[in-house]
Each structure stands twice: as structure tokens, then as C-alpha cells.
Amino acid sequence: MVKIRLSRGGAPKRPFYHVVVTDGRSARDGRSIERVGFYNPNAVGKEVPLSLETDKINAWIAKGAQPTDKVKFLIKLAAKKAA
Prior knowledge:
By secondary structure, the protein is of the alpha+beta class. It has helices spanning 54-62, 69-82, and strands spanning 2-11, 14-23, 34-39, 50-52, 66-67. GO terms for molecular function: structural constituent of ribosome. One of its GO terms (cellular component) is cytoplasm.
């Protein structure tokens, strides 16, 4: 099953997440099919905390990809900011 989930990066105690489309059986930070955005929970000042390519995400969901709970929340948050 194809999943849309977060892949962790960044320094210790300074997380940075890529939103990736990946096979559900692969490791969290393993090989991914495509990167479709990022999430920076520690953004301060003029740093961008969230950037998603919603057209690509919607295309993957139409093909049957399942977003995780956190990614669903981030998609709603991005839609709210865009409106």
C-alpha cells in the first residue's frame, strides 16, 4: 500500500520533516517515491513552517495513496492558510 507520511530529518532536538509518498513497507526514513512538501515545526521569524504541493498530493490520493493522521492534519492546515 502506498502511503503519504513524514520522513524525519534535521539535527537532534531540531526536527525537520519531508512529506513523502512511499511504500508502506519501507522504513520511515527509507527510500521514497516522491517528495511532495515539508513541515518545519520549529520555524521562527520569516522561515516557512509548512509547504505542500497539494495538486500532487491530491493526485496520489486519487490513485489510492493513504495519508497518515498527521499528514491529513497538515493538508487541512495548508488548505485553511490558502483560503
